[in-house]
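Practice problem 4.
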């Protein structure tokens, strides 16, 4: 059975960049693909129909498939027992891989409830208790998605080109073509890129891992980039990255009609398959429950396919050494199996034709939110799950406490027996109690419900703030003077870094993954584009070449791995502008303002901020006039340098310029520029014949070492030529000055110099005399000061002597007064004794008289 496939897209590599759901194998235009007849499956010779109506009997179809049709479906030529063994082994491996991550999938599935998208009806602790979920996790996810989506997919396109190595005008044009074409494809042609990226950025913070698959879709005849949830891409538990993974399984859901298209086109084996009820995973079932949808009936229109990127050693297609003996090395293949029936639909080689190393082709890129302990990353469900559950529990307790407090319940007396005592009391419910009659107040007993706890409310705030700080969703506190002239640059940057360091690390991981995605996308373009591909854009028609996608230009995301928000970008641009305004002589103010407008997202900046005018070649007269206004003239390579030099030197000989050193300096600098250009032009003209000979000798392309040697010779010759021209100019000026020896202007200038010299000598003499007079005055002053000090010392000595004499006299006087005082005391004692004796005599006389 021969099929001839003709497409409008030539030069298509038949490598399997597409998944079985969307793609066909496409051959070169006009090439015929021979497939074995269905009745000739298995071993034995096969008949190959020829174009002339004849037939060829092929006794070794496996060898023919291996040598003649590299991109063919190997499963068409393998025996059934080999296919059954391959399918059995791979399905067993798939089940093992799936079971190894069951705990991860369980944690992810249970964590989806924390989003709070579905309100929970609760009957405990009482009927009607609140089922609200705290929006901590949902808030973190939505804010991350909104922020990352804007940064990773800007309006102008997410791709930019970077030149590797030395930049030449040719390579710069190539980089510009690559950038414009890839942005055109992503924003205009690849219609799935935007929504797939949007959806991926919502799943990523939840699961911690998300994947993109990049391949060429033959049905759409273009490259595509599809989002694959983490639950649909399964790897072994011991794998650390996709590059070294020996088995990657992509679970594909395919409609019956799409499967049949692939079978008819020859991409899959045309075998009978019976659809069975799809096995819905726990995570998918949880997602359907959150969305409020469910499968109400069994549909036979969908198949579960396992597209497995594995390393196999297939009998008949073994890796062989130089002696044509099998080496036992497993080679990379893409095997597609129907999960329900276990039948192999296709086996394709997963390396590029002609690659002796058999390097595996990559189709997947792994986006990680946070690096995990294994292959899969950690998401907000893993990191904030506990805080979100705690916040939900605290919030529910607060609401339930308020409900119970506002709707009190209790008991009312009706006897000793309580009705329905095994049921909890609901808010607002008063239940009968069998009790003896009495006071109405005594017959009512409300339950002791408390108001919502302030401590619990504080705990809720603490938990919420802790989760928001970790997720980086808190507002950036920049202060009242943030970004103003008064705010120090270091303070601004410190606050910015402190508030955004977690998000900055996550954004760097996204930047790295998107870079890998763009590299895979560029590889698809390099293999599937025609030699020249014209395309139309808003500003006109453009062209890209297939050879543009080589190793000279690298494609990277437009996003900056260190900047992930507009606030951060504006703050950095404003800081740069402040630094430029503080030292304008060291910065390009125009570029600083342009970056500020760019950070603000202003379109058509050149209309608001016109670019500064670029210097243009002018005649010598205009250049001379400009130097009088302190304007520096600029020399250009294609000017008549000799004429310019003569005109400037003539202008320099005028009295107006001779008496103006600033103008002389500008003209002399400008003449030196012309000398450099003139010397280089002369050397190039002299070396041109030798260059032509070398170009003929090497076939129009000089080797790098020869080119470097010629450049060194040219630079040396240019330096020598410049020295000769300057020496000649200096000799001409010296000769001119010698001829102008009797010039009255020169004599007048010399007289002015002599007068200034005499004035300087007289001034120096006067300064000397003045200095001598000052020294004499200083000497006299020093003598007077010494005499004054001596006189003061004498007076002080005299005063000291007088004080000593006075002190001695005082001491003598004190001694005299002390002796007189003693004599007076003795006299007074004698008189007192005499008085007492007289009194005693008197008393004796009286006694005698009596």
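Answer key:
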């Amino acid at each position: 059975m021969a099929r001839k496939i003709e497409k409008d897209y030539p030069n298509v590599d038949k490598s399997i960049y597409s998944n079985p759901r969307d793609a066909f194998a496409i051959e070169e235009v006009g090439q015929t693909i021979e497939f074995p007849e269905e009745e000739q499956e298995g071993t034995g010779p096969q008949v190959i129909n020829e174009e002339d109506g004849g037939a060829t009997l092929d006794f070794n179809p496996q060898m023919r498939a291996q040598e003649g049709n590299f991109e063919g479906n190997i499963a068409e030529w393998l025996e059934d027992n080999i296919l059954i063994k391959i399918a059995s082994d791979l399905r067993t491996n798939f089940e093992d891989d799936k079971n190894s991550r069951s705990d991860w999938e369980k944690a992810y599935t249970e964590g989806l409830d924390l989003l709070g998208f579905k309100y929970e009806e609760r009957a405990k602790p009482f009927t009607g208790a609140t089922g609200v979920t705290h929006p901590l996790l949902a808030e973190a996810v939505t804010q991350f998605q909104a922020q990352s989506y804007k940064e990773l997919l800007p309006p102008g396109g997410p791709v930019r080109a970077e030149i590797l190595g030395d930049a030449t005008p040719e390579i710069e044009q190539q980089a510009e073509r690559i950038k414009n074409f890839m942005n055109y494809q992503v924003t205009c042609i690849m219609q799935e890129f935007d929504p797939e990226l949007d959806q991926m950025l919502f799943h990523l913070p939840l699961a911690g891992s998300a994947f993109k698959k990049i391949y060429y879709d033959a049905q759409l005849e273009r490259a595509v980039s599809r989002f694959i949830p983490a639950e649909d891409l399964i790897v072994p538990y011991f794998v650390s990255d996709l590059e070294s993974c020996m088995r990657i399984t992509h679970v594909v859901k395919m409609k019956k009609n799409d499967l049949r298209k692939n079978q008819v086109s020859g991409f899959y084996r045309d075998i009978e398959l019976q659809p069975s009820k799809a096995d819905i995973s726990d995570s998918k079932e949880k997602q359907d429950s959150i969305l409020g949808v469910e499968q109400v009936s069994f549909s036979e229109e969908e198949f579960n396919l396992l597209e497995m990127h594995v390393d196999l050693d297939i009998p008949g297609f073994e890796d062989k050494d130089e002696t044509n003996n099998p080496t036992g090395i497993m080679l990379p293949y893409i095997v597609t199996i129907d999960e329900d029936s276990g039948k192999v639909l296709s086996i394709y080689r997963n390396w590029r034709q002609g690659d002796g190393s058999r390097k595996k082709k990559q189709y997947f890129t792994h986006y990680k939110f946070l690096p995990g302990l294994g292959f899969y990353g950690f998401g907000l469900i893993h990191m904030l799950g506990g805080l979100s559950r705690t916040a939900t529990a605290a919030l529910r307790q607060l609401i339930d406490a308020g409900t119970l407090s506002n709707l009190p319940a209790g008991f009312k007396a009706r006897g000793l027996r309580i009705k329905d005592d095994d049921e909890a009391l609901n808010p607002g419910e008063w239940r009968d109690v069998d009790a003896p009659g009495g006071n109405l107040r005594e017959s009512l007993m409300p339950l002791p419900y408390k108001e919502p706890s302030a401590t619990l409310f504080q705990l809720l705030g603490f938990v919420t703030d802790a989760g928001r700080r970790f997720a980086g969703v808190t507002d950036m506190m920049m202060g009242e003077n943030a970004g103003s002239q008064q705010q120090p640059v270091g303070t601004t940057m410190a606050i910015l870094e402190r508030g955004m360091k977690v998000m900055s690390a996550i954004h760097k991981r996204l930047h790295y993954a998107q870079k890998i995605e763009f590299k895979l996308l560029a590889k698809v373009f390099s293999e599937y584009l025609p030699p020249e591909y014209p395309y139309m854009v808003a500003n006109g028609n453009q062209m890209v070449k297939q050879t543009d996608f080589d190793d000279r230009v690298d494609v990277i995301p437009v996003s900056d791995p260190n900047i992930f928000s507009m606030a951060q970008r504006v703050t950095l641009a404003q800081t740069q502008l402040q630094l430029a305004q503080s030292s304008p002589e060291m910065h390009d103010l125009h570029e600083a303002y342009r970056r500020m407008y760019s950070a603000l997202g202003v379109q058509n900046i050149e209309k608001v901020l016109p670019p500064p005018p670029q210097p243009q070649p002018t005649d010598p007269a205009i250049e001379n006039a400009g130097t009088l206004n302190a304007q520096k003239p600029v020399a250009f390579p294609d000017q008549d340098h000799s004429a310019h030099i003569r005109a400037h030197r003539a202008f320099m000989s005028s009295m107006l310029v001779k008496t103006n050193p600033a103008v002389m300096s500008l003209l002399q600098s400008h003449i030196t520029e012309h000398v450099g250009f003139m010397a280089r032009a002369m050397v190039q003209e002299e070396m041109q014949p030798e260059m032509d000979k070398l170009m003929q000798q090497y076939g129009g392309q000089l080797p790098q070492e020869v080119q470097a040697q010629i450049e060194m010779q040219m630079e040396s010759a240019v330096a020598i030529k410049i020295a000769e021209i300057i020496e000649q100019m200096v000799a001409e000026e010296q000769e001119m000055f010698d001829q102008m020896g009797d010039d009255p202007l020169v004599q007048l200038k010399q007289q002015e110099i002599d007068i200034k010299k005499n004035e300087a000598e007289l001034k120096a003499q006067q300064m000397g005399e003045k200095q001598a007079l000052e020294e004499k005055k200083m000497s006299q002053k020093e003598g007077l000061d010494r005499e004054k000090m001596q006189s003061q010392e004498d007076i002080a000595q005299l005063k000291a002597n007088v004080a000593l004499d006075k002190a001695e006299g005082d001491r003598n006087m004190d001694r005299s007064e002390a002796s007189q005082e003693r004599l007076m005391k003795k006299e007074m004692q004698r008189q007192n004794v005499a008085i007492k004796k007289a009194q005693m005599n008197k008393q004796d006389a009286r006694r005698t008289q009596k």
